[in-house]
Amino acid sequence: MAALLAPTSSEDGALLAELLSLPTEGRFAPVQLTPQRKKEKTFEALLKQLEDLARQAPVLMLFEDVHWIDPSSRELLDLVIERVPRLPVLLLVTFRPEFQSPWIGQAHVTMLALNRLDRREGAALVQRVVGTGDLPSDVVAEIIERTDGVPLLVEELTKAVLEGGNAGIVLSRAAGTALNVPATLHASLMARLDRLGSAAKEVAQVGAAVGREFSYELLAAVAQRNKADLNAALDQLVGAGLVFRRGVPPLATYLFKHALVQDAAYSTLLRGRRQQLHAQIAQSLEAHSPELTDSPPEIFAHHYAEAGLVEQSVQYWARAGHSSAARSAMAEAAAQFQKALDQLALLPDNNERQRQELEFYSALGAVLTTTKGSAAPETGHAYARARELWDRLGSPSEFLRVPFGQSRYHAFRGELDLAHRFDEDLLRLSRERNDPAGLVLGHLSAGRTLLYRGKFAASRSHLEAGLALYDPVAHCLLIQQAALHPAVVSQSYLGKVLFCLGLPDQGLARSNAAVVEARGLAHPPTLATSLILGAMPLLLVGDIQALDKRIDELLAVAAEQGFPYWHALGTIFHGWSTVKKGDVTEGMLLLRQGLTAYRATGAGVWMPYCLALLAMACEIAGQIEEGSTVLDEALQFAERTSELWLAAELNRHKGQLLLRQVHSDAAEVFYRNALNIAEGQETKLLELRAAVSLARLWCNQGKGDAARNLLGSTYGWFTEGFDTPILREAKALLTEL
């Protein structure tokens, strides 16, 4: 391995050593990167290894059984498939038919469906296994009939016949129909193991308990046999074709020919012996390789769980979850925290168990926020259970992120009054305990909720207070605990607030700075949040070119990371942009698809404005009646949920639609509503938009003086943002008046 890593940079060497859980003994300096960036750099290092090998000679690269692939390995495989057209590499990927391959259709990808063997091919495979010997034709025909053209079954049943010595007896034990062939294979494998003798069978059992692949060193530590006997048993297994060997003992590793062979050996172990073996494996790993105790913890967790040593299993599953979350492998982290909880449920219900359960549920909630969405039922359940435990244990300060998570869940579902109560709870407790980290989260949460409720000035105060308290050193753990960077996200929300309050230059500057900082963090949830929050001001001012760039980046991040909530919102905004650029049919299709996906996440917040975008698209398409119906739904949704931050815009759009239907009096009512709402919320930019619409209506009605007075007063308030489209439009209308 040292020779392989020699040509690499120090950083790549450190990353690959960490990936392989290899001690570096000071050879490489630790890499200080964010979890997501570390994963990206590790992928880059692996791809560089592939490129270096391909420069030396053509490379055959195998990915087998991809139907069992984990999410992070899947990401790497996607990158490899993207890279291989430029390299002398033949990539072979195998998977079962039920796996949906996303790569089919790419120019450099060819799919080969491996069907069952026909009789001629089956006979050829039998002969290949037999070698220089021979089997009667009726026996060959019977093997083919029994195995239904499955190559592995053909091989194993043929070997069973050869080793059994009496073809009639062996085949008589086989199942009568092809549907039962798997049972036949199991019996065949069992018989072959038995014929190798007890020593080889016991060694196979130990290896099977370790896993599909096992090392000689670990096997020797667990099997507790003398070297000669162990080597002889392994030679028998290799000679029988049940196990493959790579390398020379004691550095050799072994691989069962197929998972079914491992299963057959493992199934012969009695429960007590299984537990004993798994305990020995875990203890041997710790005793013989101390450096592994801090690397893949899921291996230890699995063996301790199978050994019935629940406390140790809980400890390692939790460590695995935190490790996965730290490197942004969120799907794996969610599964590992759930396994920790499953194991924890086997322990007596006491304070210690409840405290651990609180830790795991709060961590699970943060992870599910990214993989399922902040408003997903699974996320809500995790935080609700965490809150129940938190209250029962006296609301310990180190878990103040629990009410933060609850507020986020309810806010994103559009349950803003309930979210506000959690915000007040969090801020009260944080103040009572003089907890700066809790206050940072509390001010962010309150600022977000108040924004959506249309209380812009109060929102601004909270967001600025949270930013003033944030300490990047003292609060560095919040990014993992809350699944976002509180300072960057606070700045993103503040940008939107300032923009609506009539400070568009400051608002856009805040939004842009937040996006830049989020890119530097390489924390996808924070980047996605900053991109969508920064898109709203661009949409309001009508800067479609800048909006497209931001949404394209958002959709790429959401698709790569599997963020359903942000992908749905991005699709909605992309649909609106497409409509504005003239492709109304495609844009409306995207809007509807995005809305369907958004509803599926359980989200409610943003829904009124998303519906308003569809209504405006209907107006552009000339579908005025449908647009009016959709906008009525948006207004009712906003009133029902108290999501009033864009209530002025909804009323203005309603007036616009009524005007298209030649209902000028009714349109004026809604324009006035929009103006009054914006004045009450002190949202000067939205007030100006309403004033422009109302002034234009009055101008067309011959009320030029009233229009000029209204618009002049509103426009005169502004001290910045004169290059934004709405201020340019207002100035042009004033000149016209």
UniProtKB/TrEMBL annotation:
<dbReference type="GO" id="GO:0004016">
    <property type="term" value="F:adenylate cyclase activity"/>
</dbReference>
<dbReference type="InterPro" id="IPR011990">
    <property type="entry name" value="TPR-like_helical_dom_sf"/>
</dbReference>
<keyword id="KW-0547">Nucleotide-binding</keyword>
<dbReference type="GO" id="GO:0005524">
    <property type="term" value="F:ATP binding"/>
</dbReference>
<protein>
    <recommendedName>
        <fullName>Adenylate cyclase</fullName>
    </recommendedName>
</protein>
<dbReference type="GO" id="GO:0005737">
    <property type="term" value="C:cytoplasm"/>
</dbReference>
<keyword id="KW-0067">ATP-binding</keyword>
